[in-house]
Amino acid sequence: MIDEPEFTEPLARELCGTMPVHRRLLNESMAYRAQRSAIENQATQYRLGGRRISRSGTISIPVVVHVVHNTDEQNISDGQIYSQIEILNQDFRAANPDVTQVPPVWQPLVADTMIEFHLATRNPNGDPTDGIIRVRTTRSSFSHHDDAVKSSATGGADPWPSDQYLNMWVCQLRGGLLGYAQFPGGPPDTDGVVIRHSAFGNMGTVAQPFHLGRTATHEVGHWLNLYHIWGDDGQGCSGDDKVADTPNQGGGNTGMPTFPHISCNNGPNGDMFMNYMDYTDDAGMMMFTTGQSTRMNACLEGPRASFLIPQLARVGGPEERTVAAASAGGPRVSGNGSQRELEQLLQEVLKDTRAALSVISGSR
Amino acid sequence: MNEEAPDIVGAWLHAYEEDTDTTAVYHPEDYPFRPSRRPRRGMDFHADGTFVEWVPGPDDRPREVAGRWARQETDRIRVTFPEGQGEPFDLTVVSREGDTLSFARGERQ
Ligand SMILES: [Zn+2]
Question: A97 and A364 in contact (C-beta within 8 Å)?
């Protein structure tokens, strides 16, 4: 054990050097908090029914998968990537075969979010792409306390513009971590989700009990502003996931619980542990609720509206090809939303975007 | 300087599946841990007396809580959070053998 005094001087010097960094991070965190608060206010309007989701068709979000590998095994196959995209499309559309395992009492709450995903077909320059980036790294694994995988300067892969693509980084994560996300309102250059290669898709390198692609379903839920179903208060009963139709529950559930699992006086039905936003094994989670769907779609009409706008612009107009190309192979909206509905939504979205921008500039 | 005091400097993550009734088991963060959906708690003891606790965050990314640590007795560690980000707690080191560090089970498990 070395005594502290030996370190006093270098530490003090280092502290001075890091002061501006500290101040910058503090300012950023204040801006982030203001952003999150504005986003929560917008989500609340939808939750309380003051605003309704304008879109009636599906949206498909373009995805770029960055496979950052240190070994050939970690360089997962195209097939493993396709399997993950297919699972996302099943889970977000309530088309997953295991949805029938939801206890009857909660079947009416099972939601089709009308959100889909596809590998990007155009890169940021507008050129054709398969939406898969493969990068060899000298790092044997990526740690959970930095975002090294998200930058080529630190052995990872740079994101594509995160207002047009959902960035997914697939790599070996340290500490047994399955994945992590970033909520809307965070820094654009780290926006997206990170998934352990052995929990991505349902084939190739996947390992039980995280072998059914549900890690990505869960992390994309966060990316679309969902909180954990127990409200992130440890084991307490006061946490809130800001969704009304999910029961209050104590802590997160792990493994494969059996119904009903009671906590926080939430009998007779107990915890909704089969929800994608709990911590159960892949085979034990199989639903989003209507309330969660509303919250995710509110996110798409608010902080992530950049994914909707190009699609709105595409609908109907003669310019749609041009606009589509400009939107970097972008998202697709389909369905029967009327032109007027869409125009109205566009106005709302622009209003929100302006409001969000004023929040950012106001707190600088 | 106490020769009997086990060296705990470094970053450690909780191998909760290896806990016994009396001990909480930790390994270095680069240990090949089994995947876990619940992010593992961690503790990083720096030689200069600073300390970082990692607690699971709402986006599944461990959140860092900065504090300080000090040895009270040979096997007793006191952790404090001068910036008020948490309650102080004590740890009792049971053993340090290679890449396995064991604490008596307590409020930090
Ligand atoms: Zn999570």
Answer: no
Ranges of each domain in chain A = 56-292
Task: Name residue A161's amino acid.
Answer: P
CATH (residue range A56-292): 3.40.390.10
Q: Which residues of chain A have pLDDT under 50?
A: 1-19, 316-328, 336, 359-364
Q: What CATH number did the domain enclosing B80 receive?
A: 2.40.128
Residue B68 phi, psi dihedral angles, 5° rounding: -135, 155
The whole-angstrom separation of Cα A111 and Cα A120 is: 25
Of the residues A86, A116, A219, A343, only one is catalytic, namely A219
From the number of C-beta atoms within 10 Å of its C-beta (0-12, 13-18, 19+), residue B5 rates as middle
Q: How far apart are the first and last CA of chain B?
A: 27
Q: C-alpha distances in angstroms, B44 versus A94, A110, B11, B67?
A: 42, 42, 4, 10
Determine what percent of chain A falls in helix, strand and coil, rounding each to the nearest 5: 40, 15, 45
Question: For chain B, what is the domain count?
Answer: 1
**pLDDT, chain B, mean:** 91
Any idea of the CA torsion for A28, A29, A32, A36, to the nearest 10 degrees?
-170
Closest-CA distance, B26 to chain A, in angstroms, reads: 11
| Nearest partner of A221 among A154, A139, A291, A170, judged by Cα | A291
Q: C-alpha distances in angstroms, A332 versus A18, A61, A159, A164, A313?
A: 45, 7, 21, 12, 10
Contacts A279 to B, Cβ<8 Å: 37-38
Between CA A24 and CA A30 the distance in angstroms is 10
**pLDDT computed for residue A241 by the predictor:** 97
- What residue ranges in chain B does DSSP mark as E strands? 10-14, 23-28, 42-45, 50-55, 63-73, 76-80, 89-97, 100-104
Contact criterion met (CB below 8 Å) for A86 and A118: no
What are the C-alpha distances in Å from A289 to residues A57, A261, A272, B87? 18, 18, 10, 36
- B82: domain range? 10-104
Whether chain A has a CB inside 8 Å of the CB on B48: the answer is yes
